């Protein structure tokens, strides 16, 4: 089983994004749960106000339950706390508290996370607001985190998962915060994505293309260059090139990174799928491939390696890989 986690900013400015995540979960249920793949969906919401830091965490292995829950989520209202109204307050948000919530999840389960937000986190060097103080206290009280530097929080999460986690960041509005979010994505082998427009359907369509390609790849499929209607949804996203990005040891050094620049969508996405395949392995597939296809499996790996190193043309590699995958499936029917 793998855990697909959405860390969702539910402050007042995120109405389109919340609607997009709701649509994404609905599509996921139709395409993943109905295929009986072993997938858990976790929704972590975060918001804040001058009255407190609010983070919630709900996980689902049944599609209908996931849909019912995400339908019930409202802006500024932490799930389970209907009397609370928390619109975000000071501008920056409590992403540190949301990311720290990953420490409470099963670290043995391969986890692919999407942090979706439109604002930066509270930084220690900035003026302390009520909201920032609430987050610092929250981290101490719930997670025993005394050093609330973002990079320390990330280091604790990374140590918890031991390479079993990928974090992707969907960040609206390019500004200096992209440096921090580039560091987060880089640290966890993810991607930094900026939607070009704030529209629910386009967010849902783009996320579903990414997820469907990831699921297909992990289940033994291939990443093709064919231009389909679904792939056009990726055109509404900017995929940033983080190849030269460095991850500092503390917040103060994040500024030494350049503002990330747009990369080639296919190259960035292919690299992400490659990393996701390593993390997830065969734990997404309905059933493992038996040893009877060992020869074909080895040949498939060689074919992939030859394609990646340029020793075999893409179309030839695709044809050979397709034939091998079909043969492996036949051997294990």
Automatic annotation (TrEMBL):
Alphabetical UniProt keywords: Signal
UniProt entry tagged with the keyword Lyase: no
Domain of life: Eukaryota
Entry-linked PROSITE patterns: VWFA (PS50234)
Record-annotated VWFA domain positions: 3-156
Position of the signal peptide: 1-15
InterPro entries: VWF_A, vWFA_dom_sf
Protein name as catalogued: Putative F-box domain-containing protein
